Amino acid sequence: MTALDDPITSAPSRFPRDLTRRIVERIREDSLDTAAHAMTDPASIFTDPVQFERERHLFFRHGAHVVGWAGELPGPNTYVTRDIAGTPVLITRDGDGVLHAFLNACTHRGAQVATGCGEARRFTCPYHAWSFDAQGALAGQPEAWGFEDIDRATLGLQQLPIASVAGLLVVGLSDDVDPVAAYADIAPHLQGYSYDTHEVVCRHQWTLQANWKIAFDVNLEAYHIASLHRETLNSLVLNNAVHDAFGRHARWAFPTRAAVAMVDLPEAEWPEPAPITVVHTFFPSCVLLETPVSSQMFRIYPGRHAGECTVELTEASIRPVQSDDERAARMRGADFAALIVGTEDFPVAEQCQRGAEAGLDRFVFGRVEPMLQHWHNTWRTALDS
Ligand code: FES
Ligand SMILES: [Fe+2]
């Protein structure tokens, strides 16, 4: 969630008008999109080590992952690094502007050849100084004569599949993954968000004693806002939420309280940007929360066992930052989001994990929690496929 008193409101709306219309209608009726029935899942899905390993293998190791915005590599010879569910990855844009992804593991003996992000034509391993170009080829090798009996062409960085999907960076962690196909269902609904101009402002990270799905679930409904966020978000947003499924992926959106005024206004007088929040959720575990002025990405990955996960929150400006005031506003937005999730959502996620580990037999997902139902049905079906 973001600081909703943000002074920067000049960005054009990035939100589809039909989505805004549906939300305004829900405010008018004081209702929300619902599921047909309540449903349950066994609590063991959060604790079972066998299921945990299957998820790690199928969803993460052999999955495609949204890991950032193409705007993070704004020109030729730029790069970013990522930890994707424990796998170190280097993403480059070469001198011709083409994106590449590699295992960030030196082909000599595995050390990481790059850290952080920035501009670079070459990446030099800190261990013995082998170097690689932006296309991954081995470019330098001290005392190369000592390695002549290994074909140099086989010593380039190991390539990984990568694509820009509507300006989002999508990386596959194994050769059998097609990043474009994996996101084809939702890609048409991601147009107009200008992800290729987004600039990252800051990051926050957590390690939680909770299953990765529980940490994901806290992002999927506004039902808890009136109680868990009673002193914070409850004065800012309403639970007149709408939702849509796009294959495995999904989207939900809800209004801020400022949207109430739109009910009595003709559409031509609706404010731009619309005072709503749109939350894209990507298989298996990425949440992209769009406010009128920023994008907040939560990447949630399994930890070392079923009861642990890592969460990274990245705050991006929807356009390159133009002033110190604008940067400060984005930082405030990220700090506010980090405060809410870090002190309210994540502690309760850890409580839910303790409940599951204590022997609770099942978790319940009500009609007012349709996104939870979508995701638990999707994960279950994907495990069975
Ligand atoms: S591990 Fe990279 S140069 Fe030796
Ligand atoms: Fe929350």
From TrEMBL:
PANTHER family assigned: CHOLINE MONOOXYGENASE, CHLOROPLASTIC
Signal peptide: none
Cofactors: Fe cation
InterPro entries attached to this UniProt entry: ARHD_Rieske_2Fe_2S, Rieske_2Fe-2S, Rieske_2Fe-2S_sf, Ring_hydroxy_dOase_asu_C_dom, Rng_hydr_dOase-A
Keywords: 2Fe-2S, Iron, Iron-sulfur, Metal-binding, NAD, Oxidoreductase
The UniProt record lists the keyword NAD: yes
Positions of the Rieske domain: 64-171
The organism of origin for this protein: freshwater metagenome
Keyword Metal-binding: yes
Protein name per its UniProtKB record: Unannotated protein
MF term (GO), any: oxidoreductase activity
